[in-house]
Recover the amino acids of this structure.
């Protein structure tokens, strides 16, 4: 497995609120306008899974496989060309401050790794940026 870790981001919001938002994919409805439509399309989601199309991989589905309130949401791709897991890790660092880190583990063979490593690292950092700018307290 190859591991990709995002930059650590600071979110000016209570840890519990951030966790509750990210632990339910239905909340994507409230922020889908922030997702770049030139990269990701055909979104559908329920509380535990999210399906979308991304070029060049095609249709991908992530399901939440573990929740550890209010610290971690773990997802796995159950429709993907490669085995992928994603962890959203949260840590309260103040009364209204939460640190966020994303970790992706992907099963990349020796041919895919050189081609996908940079796009995956860039993508995980972009996702962390988007998650850090969500107005969590106004979504409820």
């Amino acid at each position: 497995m190859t591991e990709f870790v995002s930059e650590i981001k600071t979110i000016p919001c209570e840890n519990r609120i951030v966790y509750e938002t990210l632990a339910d994919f239905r909340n994507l409805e409230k922020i889908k306008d922030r997702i770049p439509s030139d990269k990701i399309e055909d979104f559908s989601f329920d509380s535990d899974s999210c399906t979308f199309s991304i070029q060049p991989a095609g249709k991908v589905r992530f399901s939440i496989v573990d929740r550890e309130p209010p610290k971690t949401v773990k997802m796995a791709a159950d429709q993907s060309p490669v085995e992928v897991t994603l962890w959203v890790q949260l840590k309260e660092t103040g009364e209204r401050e939460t640190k966020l880190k994303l970790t992706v583990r992907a099963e990349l063979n020796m041919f895919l790794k050189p081609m996908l490593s940079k796009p995956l690292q860039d993508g995980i950092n972009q996702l962390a940026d988007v998650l850090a700018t969500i107005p969590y307290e106004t979504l409820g």
